Amino acid sequence: MIGVWHAWRGRTPRGEGPWAWLSAGSVALSLLALAALLLLLTVRGLGHFWPADVALVTLADGQQLAGVPVREVALPGDGRERLYRTGNAELEDGVWAWVPVAAITEVEYPRELVRVERRRGDEMVGWLVGMTREDGRWIEGARAWTALQERLHVLQGLRETRDRLRETVILPHVSEREPGDGDTPELTRAYARLQELQAAMEGGRLILRAAGGERLVVPLEALQSARRPNAMSAIDKLADWSDAVWRFLTEGPRAANTRGGVWPAIFGTVLMVILMSVMVMPFGVLAAVYLNEVAHQGRVTRLVRIAVRNLAGVPSIVYGVFGLGVFVYGIGGTLDTWFFEERLPSPTFGTGGLLWASLTLALLTLPVVIVATEEGLARIPDQQREGALALGATRLEMLSRVVLPMATPAMLTGLILAVARAAGEVAPLMLVGVAKLAPQVPVDGHFPFLHLDRKFMHLGYHVYDVALHSGDLQAALPLAYATALLLVLVILVLNLTAIFLRHYLRVRHGMPSPR
């Protein structure tokens, strides 16, 4: 944008001609494309959680349907059709309905229309007829809506207690138990408490009347939430939207990743990137130091540099195949034979997991770190090295106390590039450890606390799975947009952290900023 402005004002350097306009226009188009992408992800992703109003549509033949208007398209000729999400998968009409605009005689937004979100399956839309409590008592009218909200609040608390019991007690004990071992007293008590919670959640039914007059009955324990969006104020909708976004960020997935949140995927993505960074930085820096400071600058060194740069262009799936063959089956299978023979044929390290995924991505990003670090080392003036040696420093002291601190911003540049590439990779992870559903994160309170052998979820793979493997693509697409936006934000936060650290070190060591 700045280049376009200067070019328009006639401030382009003499002799550059149209090239200044071409380069400035390319930068402007790139920024506009990036802004358009972020705007699309934001509108489609965050708009998914907004409690949209429910329309009651009356057709020319007298039939009625209730649903949320999604979009409107033009038909060949002068006609137009409008898509409504009607829910109520139990009915023959299905979840989606295309309605000719010309056939619509009236559109209303009754305040009493209810949208019910189920934990599994599609939502339900209709009028609340009544409900039976867990004790079998029938409630209808205005009291039914109040009782429904109270029961849903209780169910949410029971589910949180149940999930916490599974994650903190049952799953860690089951994963650490040796084959043939019986249940410990703590595990027996946990199972008994789990049965009590499950019994407390059972009982009660909700009855809705659909727009066509059909009655829909669903157990209360199968419900996630119920709202009347037409009766909600803007502030109420904003609060509901904020709560939905928060639950999306903090809850685990459900219903085959088509419902719920993405917290395990966020945690898995960040943890994998951190482990990858810890693994790749020492080897990348040491390799760059050897090539630039130690090795004889001859033909062999030039060939090694060419090979390193070519490795940066190898397709990522090739690294995934290498990781599967060498890390998983080779090293992991050997570790199972040495240390976990009693668990075979069930593998411990001989299958995909967090460790092998981090190592594979470390190998994938190693050329990037080497090239960036070596370029930073090459920019350090030789006078700095000669001055340190002249003052009596050994070659090791010169490297560790003068050269490497000055090259730290370049190392962090390599780290930034590595994080940007590794965080969005999906193809190699499909072979070495990512899982469609792994609600238990690889970190817990039981020794060794960080479980490198566990499979993990990843935001990139979650987008792939939701967008391509969902039973209802039309309903899952907004969730894919939201997850993609979240992945971009996670990468942005990781990169900004490294950028701020690089700036701090550059100022501390008096290094000029690159132009």
Can you walk me through this structure?
- The chain is α+β, with helices and mostly antiparallel strands and 515 residues long.
- Helix 7 (299-311) crosses helix 9 (354-378).
- It has 14 helices and 13 strands.
- The strands form three sheets. Strands 6, 7, 8, 9, 10 and 11 form a six-stranded antiparallel β-sheet that branches. A five-stranded antiparallel β-sheet has the order 4-3-2-1-5, with no helix packed on it. Strands 12-13 form a two-stranded antiparallel sheet.
- It folds into two domains: 55-250, no CATH class; 263-508, MetI-like fold (Orthogonal Bundle), CATH 1.10.3720.
How would the blueprint of this fold be written?
Layout: H1 2-8, H2 19-46, E1 55-59, E2 64-74, E3 80-85, E4 96-100, E5 104-108, E6 113-118, E7 124-132, E8 138-140, H3 142-176, H4 185-201, E9 205-209, E10 215-219, E11 223-227, H5 234-250, E12 253-254, E13 259-260, H6 263-294, H7 299-311, H8 316-339, H9 354-378, H10 382-390, H11 395-422, H12 429-432, H13 459-469, H14 473-508
Antiparallel strand pairs: 1-2, 1-5, 2-3, 3-4, 6-7, 6-11, 7-8, 7-9, 9-10, 12-13
Helix pairs in contact: 1-2, 2-14, 3-4, 6-9, 6-11, 7-9, 8-9, 9-11, 10-11, 11-14, 13-14
CATH topology of the largest domain: MetI-like fold
CATH superfamily of the largest domain: MetI-like
State the order of secondary-structure elements, H for helix, E for strand.
HHEEEEEEEEHHEEEHEEHHHHHHHHH
Q: How many structural domains does the protein architecture include?
A: 2
Helix content: 55-70%
For the CA atoms, what is the radius of gyration? 30 Å
CATH class of the largest domain: Mainly Alpha
Low-confidence stretches: none
Average pLDDT confidence is 84
